[in-house]
């Protein structure tokens, strides 16, 4: 979806990255060239200034370059679209989402026309939503009747998982009946390769370990988006997956658990991924770099277990979390969100 500048953001059509462009954003800008044989031309690159808009054309793969900047006067500016920070193929989005789905199965799982339908505890979206993971789901109609029947059978509301680009048919469903859906916040899916990890030493007095199953100390520390989970939901965290789980923690010399994370090793498209989630630091130990320390150490563990890439998810408004994960070497891969049918 193209967006005019300035934009009042009143369009009812759902879209990703609907904020106004900021310095550093990768964008595609359509500008009008008066008197030219071709009346419009597109510039793809990174914003370096806003008034007027200045864009530096991108390098290969959507990366920043040292190319000469292009100034786009207001009277030439037609529309601008904010892009993902780097060039990502649909197959790459699908691979990360398939690996994630394997790490967060439902209690009941069913495939319908390339959509994975998962039903679990009804709390977390990941294990209670329909995901478009098949190779043609980005083009085929959404099998909405079958999805509604599946969730009705499990006494759960219909939730659609909508990764950008490959979830385009689902966005069309929502835009056709916007009053019937609640569209959740954008979630950044961030990734990094594990072949370039820096050497890392834990803070003094702390030990890192990974257990096959969490104990009560681990479970009591975990919260989902700031809220404690009921016992049956916590139990799902330790349920067998199509891959390997590890419950990481940092422990003091006295045996106190002070930071935790859930790690998974799953495969998709002949690629092996480390999934990194459920990060929590004990209140008395926050602002000491333990989140960074645990994140760095669990990446080394993932590499030791054979993972070549890592992914994680963070809500787009969580600037502190995005900053932490950027420091750990992660960059935005793509975005997704969830839509819940309300009637």
Automatic annotation (TrEMBL):
Gene Ontology MF terms: acyltransferase activity, transferring groups other than amino-acyl groups
PROSITE patterns on file: GNAT
SUPFAM superfamilies: Acyl-CoA N-acyltransferases (Nat)
UniProt xrefs under Pfam families: Rv0428c_C, SH3_Rv0428c
CDD domains cross-referenced by the UniProt entry: NAT_SF
Residue ranges constituting the N-acetyltransferase domain according to the UniProt record: 206-343
PANTHER family recorded: L-2,4-DIAMINOBUTYRIC ACID ACETYLTRANSFERASE, N-ACETYLTRANSFERASE
Protein name: N-acetyltransferase domain-containing protein
């Amino acid at each position: 979806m193209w967006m005019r500048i300035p934009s009042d953001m009143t369009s009812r059509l759902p879209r990703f990255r609907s904020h106004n462009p900021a310095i550093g954003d990768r964008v595609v800008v359509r500008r009008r060239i008066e008197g030219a044989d071709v009346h419009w031309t597109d510039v793809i690159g990174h914003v370096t200034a806003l008034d007027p808009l200045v864009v530096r054309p991108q390098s290969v793969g959507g990366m920043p370059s040292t190319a000469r900047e292009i100034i786009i006067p207001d009277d030439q500016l037609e529309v601008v679209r904010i892009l993902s920070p780097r060039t990502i193929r649909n197959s790459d989005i699908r691979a990360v989402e398939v690996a994630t789905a394997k790490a967060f199965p439902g209690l009941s799982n069913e495939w319908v026309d390339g959509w994975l339908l998962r039903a679990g505890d009804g709390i977390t979206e990941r294990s209670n939503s329909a995901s478009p993971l098949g190779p043609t789901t980005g083009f085929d109609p959404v099998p909405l009747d079958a999805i509604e029947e599946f969730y009705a059978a499990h006494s759960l509301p219909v939730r659609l998982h909508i990764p950008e680009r490959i979830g385009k048919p689902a966005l069309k469903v929502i835009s056709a009946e916007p009053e019937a859906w609640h569209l959740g916040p954008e979630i950044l899916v961030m990734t990094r390769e594990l072949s370039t990890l820096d050497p890392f030493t834990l803070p003094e007095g702390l030990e890192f370990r990974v257990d096959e199953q969490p104990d009560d100390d681990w479970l009591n520390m975990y919260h989902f988006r700031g809220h404690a989970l009921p016992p049956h939901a916590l139990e799902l965290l330790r349920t067998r997956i199509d891959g390997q789980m590890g419950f990481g923690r940092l422990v003091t010399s006295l045996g106190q658990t002070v930071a935790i994370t859930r790690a998974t090793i799953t495969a998709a498209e002949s690629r092996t991924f480390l999934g990194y989630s459920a990060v929590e630091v004990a209140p008395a130990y926050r602002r000491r770099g333990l989140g960074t320390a645990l994140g760095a150490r669990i990446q080394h563990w993932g590499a030791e277990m054979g993972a070549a890439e890592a992914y994680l998810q963070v809500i787009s408004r969580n600037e502190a979390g995005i900053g932490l994960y950027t420091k750990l070497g992660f960059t935005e891969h793509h975005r997704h969100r969830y839509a819940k049918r309300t009637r």
